[in-house]
User: Fold this.
Amino acid sequence: MSSDLASFVAGLPKAELHLHLEGTLEPELKFALAARNGIELAEKTVEEVRATYDFTDLTSFLAVYYPAMQVLQTADDFHDLAWAYLERAHADGVVHVEMFFDPQAHTSRGVPFVDVIGGYRRAVVRAERELGISAELILCFLRDFSAEHAMSTLMEALPYRSWIVGVGLDSDERDNPPAKFQAVFARAKQEGFLTTMHCDIDQVGSIDNIRSVLDEIGVDRIDHGTNIVEDPALVALAKERGLGFTTCPISNSFVTEQMKSDEIVQLLREGLRVTVNSDDPAYFGGYIADNYVALAEKAGLDRADLAQLAINSFEASWLTPARRAEYIARVREFAG
Ligand code: ADE
Ligand code: ZN
Assistant:
């Protein structure tokens, strides 16, 4: 990697819009939290943990991802997880972040909702004060749980609504189409939340799910979603709506055969609001700057392209128009 490219990317002010807090659990922190909570882990070394990261698809990733979360028990654990990520993101030039969290992955094992959101919120406030990063939380429903469970989670979240900017949908897409959550998302909108949904890469029925997310759910953003290139009419619709796409190149190369750089760059060239993000950086071995660099190297992007991706990250964000404009001016000033 050229050090010029790496330092340009690190200095570029950028927003991260597709980041699962639970996906930032590095093996070292996993061991520290296990020790703190008196949990015995099957793996004894960082290398042994990393050796289990042999993913071939989304399902095999999720089979490692959820069990690891057992070390997260207290509000302090959630704070420490989010804080470690925010410090790391700060080093990568992230100035604004909208972070997913999966409350059902914790409440379903007996951790109170308030401990999850309370711990994360403490890190959000601290990041603003100590790092100058603005951070928001997006509550993700697990799509392999029932719609009723999602609805009751939404109700549980209402007292904390001022700490949650929007809701999303993640986990295993197979047999769990967007329409299953139509009522939950309609209610979330009524309650004032912005909405996004994962349209994971190369799923059975990916393009139908993307169509449904646009037509039936009416989301404000799409996570991944690059299979949209299969239908030019949908690409045109997404462009007309100014819809943001939160792509994750390194993650793509773990759960499929490739980074999907051709699709990402095609959408970028067609003028869609394509952004670059890290997804689950502890598992896929790359934080946001690594993702910008990996895509640039694979697709031959120049500095203007990278600056456009950073501008897109603010345009697709859920900041106010005035804050977006401020950050975009900072990108232009940096990129020249
Ligand atoms: N949960 C964490 N990362 C995810 C992804 N990339 N897709 C679906 N669910 C997830
Ligand atoms: Zn994701």
